[in-house]
Structures are given as C-alpha cells and as structure tokens.
Amino acid sequence: MGLQAYRKVVFITLTVALGAVALGATAVAGFYYKQSKQPTPQTTAAGNIPAEDIIQRVSALYNLPGNEEPTIAQIQHQDKLKDQAFFSNAQNGDSILIYPKAKLAIIYRQSTNKIINIGPVNYSDSL
Fold first, then answer.
1. Number of neighbouring beta carbons within 10 Å of residue 19
2. pLDDT tens digits along 23-33
3. Is the overall model pTM greater than 0.85, yes or no?
4. Within the chain, where are the H helices?
C-alpha cells in the first residue's frame, strides 16, 4: 500500500470517527434538552414529596380553600424559626402550605399525618 492510499484510508477513518462523535454528541444534547422541557410534578422545596400528595393528605384532615393552589415549602431550619410562636412546635421536614388569598397557613407533619398548626397569614402586597 502506497503512502497516498494510506493517507486516504486515515482520512476516511478520521472523517467517519469524527462524524460518529458529532452524531453521538448531538443525540445526547437532544436527549437532555427534551428531558429539560418535560413538565415535572410540583414538589416541595426539598423535592421529596409531590405537592398533590401533601394537599390530598391535609385535605383529609382539614377543609382547605378550594379556590386556590397553595404555595408549599418544607421547613429545613426550624431553629431559625423557634422564636416565632406559629413555628414553636414545627420540626425540620414539616411542610407548610400557604394560601395567600385565604390568608391561611398550615404546618403539616407527614411522619405522623397530623396538622401541627394553622394560622392567619399577614402580608402586604406593596413593597
């Protein structure tokens, strides 16, 4: 095999290899792009309990406002909230459901399936 033929084989091999790498990279990028565009269920701040499950469990214990969806967060630093009376019995991992229109807040503990506290929400729309 002459030098000219060898160069041609190397060129074709490199072209095919680079094409395969480019095609693979495009496929991987497309996969991750498609995954990022798929809707995910609303979850709590910690991301471990679907919001729909929390709402369903709390609605079995308390008559929730039916005209709005709550904002749900998970208490992660109860020690920073202990000076506030509303959070005095809360624990890390408890969920808090906030209904702004109804001006209602609920602390729920999944481990015992109990409502820990219910109270009014006082906030101002103006900043």
1. 10
2. 877 877 877 77
3. no
4. 3-37, 51-61
